[in-house]
């Protein structure tokens, strides 16, 4: 997996997790404030679309995840 794959996978995971924890109909419901985390992830994805800057991509690059597929 390359950086783009990791970013999309982690963003999707965090959105699903925060919705499961923040929506009252969910059996995993904890508190509605988890929906702010969903907003945060979505806002980061939106700003990446305009600026091409992704903090998670910088972290993954520092951890040695390849940028391109071999």
Give the arrangement of secondary structure elements:
Layout lengths: L2 H20 L11 H18 L3 H8 L8
Helix pairs in contact: 1-2, 1-3
What does this structure look like?
With 70 residues, this protein is mainly alpha-helical. The protein has one domain. Helices cover 66% and strands 0% of the residues. The protein is built from 3 helices and no strands. It has helices spanning 3-22, 34-51, 55-62. α1 (3-22) crosses α3. The longest helix is centred in the first third of the chain and has 20 residues, at 3-22. It is elongated. The model has no long low-confidence stretch (mean pLDDT 94).
Order of helices and strands: HHH
Oligomer: single chain
* Number of domain modules: 1
Intertermini distance? 10 Å
Largest sheet descriptor: none
The count of strands amounts to: 0
Specify the number of helices. 3
Q: Average pLDDT across residues?
A: 94
Please supply descriptive tags for the structure shown above.
66% helix, mainly alpha, elongated, 70 residues
Brief overview:
This protein has one domain. 66% of the residues lie in helices and 0% in strands. It has three helices and no strands.
């Amino acid at each position: 997996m390359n950086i783009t794959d990791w970013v999309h996978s982690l963003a999707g995971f965090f959105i699903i997790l925060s919705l499961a924890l923040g929506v009252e109909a969910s059996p995993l419901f904890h508190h509605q404030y988890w929906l702010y985390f969903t907003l945060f992830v979505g806002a980061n994805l939106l700003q990446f679309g305009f600026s091409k800057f992704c903090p998670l991509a910088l972290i993954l690059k520092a951890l040695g995840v390849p940028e391109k597929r071999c």
